[in-house]
Amino acid sequence: xxxxxxxxxxxxxxxxxxxxxxxxPPFLLDVFFIINxxxxxxxxxxxMNIHEPLEFSIFPSLLLIxxxxxxxxxxxxxxxxxxxxxxxxxxxxxxxxxxxQGNVVIGVIIFxxxxxxxFIVITKGAERVAEVAARFTLDSMPGKQMAIDADLxxxxxxxxxxxxxxxxxxxxxxxxxxxxxxxKIVKGDAIMSIIxxxxxxxxxxxxxxxxxxxxxxxxxxxxxIATIGDxxxxxxxxxxxxxxxxxxxxxAVSEGSLNNDVIxxxxxxxxxxxxxxxxxxVFAVFPGTPHVQLILIAAxxxxxxxxxxxxxxxxxxxxxxxxxxxxxxxxxxxAQQTEMDYYKDINNIYSLINVEPIEMExxxxxxxxxxxxRGGKLISRIVIFRRQYAQDMGFxxxxxxxxxxxxxxxxxxxxxxxxxEVARGEILLDxxxxxxxxxxxxxxxxxxxxxxxxxxxxxWILPENKEMAEIYGYTVIDPLSVMLTHLSETVKKHTxxxxxxxxxIQLVENLKRSAPQLVEEAxxxxxxxxxxxxxxxxxxKEGIPIKDMGTIVETTVDALAxxxxxxxxxxxxxxxxxxxxxxxxxxxxxxxxxxxxxEVEKKIVASLTKNEQGVYLALGPDLMQKLLSQLNEHIKxxxxxxxxxxxLTSHIIRIYLSRLLEQFYPDLTVLSxxxxxxxxxxxxxGNITLS
Length: 691
What we know:
Blueprint: H1 2-6, H2 8-19, H3 26-49, H4 59-83, H5 90-100, H6 104-154, H7 159-211, H8 216-249, H9 258-267, H10 270-283, H11 291-336, H12 339-342, H13 346-350, E1 358-362, H14 367-370, H15 378-393, E2 400-404, E3 412-417, E4 420-426, E5 432-435, E6 447-450, E7 457-461, H16 466-471, E8 475-477, H17 479-493, H18 495-498, H19 501-514, H20 516-522, H21 529-541, H22 549-559, H23 566-576, H24 578-585, E9 590-596, H25 598-606, E10 608-611, E11 614-617, H26 621-640, E12 646-649, H27 654-661, E13 669-672, E14 681-688
Parallel strand pairs: 1-2, 9-12, 9-14, 12-13
Antiparallel strand pairs: 1-3, 3-4, 5-7, 5-8, 6-7, 10-11
Helix pairs in contact: 2-4, 3-4, 3-8, 4-7, 4-8, 5-8, 6-7, 6-8, 7-8, 10-11, 19-20, 21-23, 22-23
């Protein structure tokens, strides 16, 4: 029984097809006619009460089934009318007698009006609306998909919500496409009803006169009742179905059910109701008009408009009073609510654990640098920095949260990465910062300090001493540039901490636009996003640009055929990026470096130790002491030349030596010979030996 119920629609369609072949007795035909009318009425009411078309997404298929059901009943009723002397059941007889009421001509005219109204007005209009809706829905699909992708990328929605919205867009396109075809069925049904009615009347008259020997008047009476009754029994549900079709394809901009929308939108315009009532009252004055009816309807419209207008005025007053009441209630609640009460709500506690990628807090005196309404240029300078850094390094710096902090000194600022302070500085707005040269030509008065970004001895000088300081060889910087330089250098140093999984996926999606085949080959089957994130972090940590994502991904794919060690894969990627690395660190085609003696390299290679965590250097105390002391001496030479120190070594030990030395010399760059192009001239400013 359960199995039969699950397939009731399939059984129903098969039964409909059998109507075309198997004669039905008048009693069953009456039952099916009543079912047909009831089904059409239910469909019409459903379309009036749904909020959006997709709530009744089976309508196109249902339209086909109901049309087939109606045609099957028409065939069965035609068989009975022609073979049973015009007797085709009680329903057809009642409909025919009720409409004709003794006058065949009037009955025929009423029937034709109903059929033509359905065919020309409702069906034709619904067909056109469905066609236009289908075309515009399909045309707007790419834009809707792009809007969903944009919301997903910006974090407004999650992946699950994006999938649901894409599914809904696809369902809308399928629904309107199906409705475009289904309206053609309604049109064909209207034409077919006219043909069947004509056949019933003409063939019935011929059969009545020729075979039954009936008089012409009797034939017209019997077969006109049966024909018009049959036509109306089929056309009444067809009219309701056509109306439902028109309603469902015109509900694109509705907000609720049809009943709610009509009442809400009519009552939202009380002035229109009042004007209509006044016009009807004026018509009632003219002689010969139905005075009573006009006055009753005019009075009803005026009463409704007046009542609605009063309600809208009261609602408007409530809305105007609501903000003031809410503000008063809020202030009263804040006055009564203690901090303990506030954090009793767990949702308020969650607001405390949000972490911004980058934050910058500043004292009260520094607000003019940030406030654009007061001429502050910090935000615009940050925008320029983010754009330039993206062009240079291939990484987009996240938005920087700027806020004032009462806990700081008036001239202080703090830079935070993921909620933790990583740098702090202090500037004087009414001064300039003068960086002291190695051998100044003269002394300048000022407040001694240390430049926050590079740690250079400096002093704050008055604006009137700026030109003299420049003459003496000082580099003079305005306060905004001091703070922005400190911020940018801090961000550069911690960029690798800002790269997360979401940003890695975004970089891959960006690569997909230019190299879709490479991305399809690599992700996610060969290279995982987690592995790529680690490789990119390794590169950014040592100041290597990741702009050439194509080379990075391609090299990673090739290297995975040999090893799954992230460090070794990173070294392979660096070797492929040697042109980028060389151009980043060399000056004027020359690379000034510190080198390692061959014996030192052998000792370091022999010190490589492997454990469960990976490979690391386990240098002896003596070798470690010699390495650090000689490095310290050689790095001083680079400081005198205002150059960044570079240690050049073999590719076997580069990464391990870099990790060992970064804790002692964080500004030291360690390169391997594989990462330097052959056309560059290498100048050794020092060599580390065992002696």
